[in-house]
DNA sequence: TCCTATAAATGGAACGTTCCAATAAATCAA
DNA sequence: TTGATTTATTGGAACGTTCCATTTATAGGA
């Protein structure tokens, strides 16, 4: 149980009758070593139960192979999808990304960033917590650690951003609702301290203006970006003298909450009140009714972010182009009484 | 941009006019240093933009403060909840846990474990991937790294396990269904290579036997532990000559799939076919109809696992007691036509 | 045969910390 | 004043790697 002092390359060297340098070379897969020697060394490695000490190695090598992923809300499946996309590309690059959750808490985020820096990360992909102060990433910048923002951005920072075209997505969604004949629209959920919020709300507003919806007929209700937030938003909206007949929600979680609240009131989402989500998480398709949502190709954005990160590390730069991902509206059943236009859920159960 | 060579304690020492040892002591918050000296040093640390090199420190200190969390499926909200529970306790211990996803892939799991070991983790909380080979954790054991299994266990290993009482949970659920008058029951989803599966199925079977359900009236359909798996299970079951009228699902994801498939066939979950889930993820309560499920207090188990881990590290042992968490059946709307017994979703929207 | 070129293996310094043992300074008892 | 004790500070040797500069072995060319 009480583990003996752990083996080092010197133990291996002794065991295999070679020098530590040779062992090091073998460990790095250098071609300079004679195959038979390499084999002998590898056997010794196995025998002594050696585990590589990356900390010691990093002491010489300047930068590690650890990439950190800092996520603001792990319980939102949306971010899990993002993470999965990133992992796909890191995996094929032989890198294991470490994920850390900040739970939307800037203080926690500071701790997490500090810890990752101390660990000597090679780069960081971050979806910053709400309320992140402008200076939070100064440390990283002065240390020259490559950072990429995913999905969210900070008001004015030079850090590259990988995000969907929020403005356009919201525009499309609003235009769709207006096209369905809705004249009193609402935007539900989110808070104005988020840049994403500004973008989505901006697209929504632009559509309303362009397509002739009077200013007083658009209602904006801020709220938590969760089911609970959606429920609250709907209650607020329906309490108005002239309530809206359709809503674009900040994200799918809010939309689910809205649909739930509608049902609670005996209203049918889609028929009695149109709701559109944003992000198109996997659940959207499986909801009842299936949720119309703005698809942002989450996993694709994750992959993109990972690629950008890899390139930054490789070229030792801390700069990169922003990348705005294409979006498209996936029309399902939750957005208006006209059901002729609905998409079928992607090929499952059709044979039954 | 091209970061100057990063500052070390020697730079700080020079800047503050003290020795490196003094700086080191300050960094560790030692009381041996005169407050004014400490202040001077701290100022220098700020000035040179120093970041602590934990790798170098670990070279001397033998054990790090990194704890790894290895999770088999990050996209299952269930595991996110588990992670959140653990984070709560680690946070208050000043530890930032690193999460890594294995995506239910044993090969990936090997890589992840290797990487974490090389990083010099102080301990590991693992929910092992399906198909993990018995030897996968031998390395960790010989290295003396404390490991705790969460939710899942391996057939015969001495590694402590934190998990819910699967047998009892399944028993309760089955008994409930039988109490509702169901006589032909099914168990949906999961595969027999999982110990959890054996446990849950075991409880289910015991209830059936004890409460007088004939062997030929219980149907077991293995399948993926996902929505998709649930859909498939239902299709299979309904194709039988005498299909079941109720099912206990391996987990909530499967249950959601089953409900979806029922709807697709024009059947109403709850009224036409009773379905019970397992895990009681947050969505269960918000589903339509709300899902009856076995609640396992996921976050609580996460906390427990973290506590056990902390204790193991502290006492330098690799052994600990198993911990089997209490479960209880949360009856909602998805399990039978008798709606008088249903629970109300926890206090939201009641005022409307 | 000797010389050169290439291949394979090696010793030692460095990386940024910690911590022990030692020193220097300050305080106290006599 | 001196010596003993306490309080602050410090130098140096680790820790486990990498990598440069060397050395040693092997092969090829004349």
What does this structure look like?
- Two copies of one chain form a homodimer.
- Chain A is built from 13 helices and twelve strands.
- The first copy, chain A, is α/β, with parallel strands linked by helices and 352 residues long.
- In chain A, helix 5 (77-92) crosses helix 13 (298-314) and helix 8 packs parallel to helix 9 (195-210).
- The first copy, chain A, is elongated.
- In chain A, strands 2-1-3-4-5-11 form a six-stranded parallel sheet, sandwiched between helices. In chain A, strands 7-6-8-9-10-12 form a six-stranded mixed sheet, with helices on both faces.
- Chain A folds into three domains: 9-52, lambda repressor-like DNA-binding domains (434 Repressor (Amino-terminal Domain), Orthogonal Bundle); 67-163 and 298-325, 3-Layer(aba) Sandwich (Rossmann fold); 166-297 and 329-341, Rossmann fold, CATH 3.40.50.
- The model of chain A is unreliable at 338-352 (pLDDT under 50).
- The longest helix of chain A is centred in the last third of the chain and has 17 residues, at 298-314.
- Chains A and B meet through helix 4, helix 5, strand 2, helix 6 and helix 7 of A and helix 4, helix 5, strand 2, helix 6 and helix 7 of B.
- Chain A binds a DNA duplex (30 and 30 nucleotides) through helix 2 and helix 4.
Short description:
The structure is a homodimer of 352-residue chains. With 352 residues, the first copy, chain A, is an alpha/beta fold.
């Amino acid at each position: 149980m009480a583990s003996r002092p752990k083996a080092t390359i010197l133990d291996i060297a002794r065991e295999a009758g070679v020098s530590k340098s040779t062992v090091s070379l073998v460990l790095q897969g250098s071609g300079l070593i004679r195959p038979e020697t390499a084999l002998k060394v590898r056997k010794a490695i196995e025998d002594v139960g050696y585990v590589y000490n990356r900390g010691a190695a990093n002491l010489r090598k300047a930068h590690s192979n650890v990439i950190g992923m800092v996520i603001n809300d792990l319980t939102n499946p949306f971010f899990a999808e993002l993470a999965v996309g990133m992992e796909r590309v890191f995996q094929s690059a032989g890198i294991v990304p470490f994920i850390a959750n900040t739970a939307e808490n800037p203080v926690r985020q500071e701790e997490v960033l500090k810890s990752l820096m101390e660990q000597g990360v090679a780069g960081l992909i971050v979806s910053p917590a709400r309320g992140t102060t402008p200076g939070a990433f100064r440390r990283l910048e002065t240390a020259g650690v490559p950072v990429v923002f995913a999905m969210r951005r900070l008001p004015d920072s030079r850090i590259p951003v990988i995000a969907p075209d929020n403005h356009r997505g919201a525009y499309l969604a609003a235009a769709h609702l207006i096209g369905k004949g809705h004249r009193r629209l609402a935007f539900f959920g989110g808070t104005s301290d988020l840049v994403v919020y500004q973008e989505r709300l901006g697209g929504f507003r632009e559509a309303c203006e362009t397509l002739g919806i009077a200013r007083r007929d658009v209602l904006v209700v801020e709220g938590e970006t969760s089911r609970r937030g959606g429920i609250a938003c709907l209650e607020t909206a329906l309490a108005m003298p002239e309530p809206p007949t359709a809503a674009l929600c900040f994200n799918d979680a809010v939309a689910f909450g809205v649909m739930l609240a509608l049902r609670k009131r005996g209203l049918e989402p889609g028929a009695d009140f149109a709701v559109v989500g944003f992000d198109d998480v996997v659940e959207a398709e499986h909801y009842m009714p299936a949720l119309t949502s703005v698809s942002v190709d989450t996993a694709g954005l994750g992959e993109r972010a990972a690629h950008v990160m890899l390139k930054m590390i490789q070229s030792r730069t801390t700069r990169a182009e922003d990348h705005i991902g294409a979006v498209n509206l996936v029309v399902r059943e939750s957005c208006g009484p006209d059901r002729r236009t609905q998409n079928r859920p992607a090929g499952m159960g059709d044979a039954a």
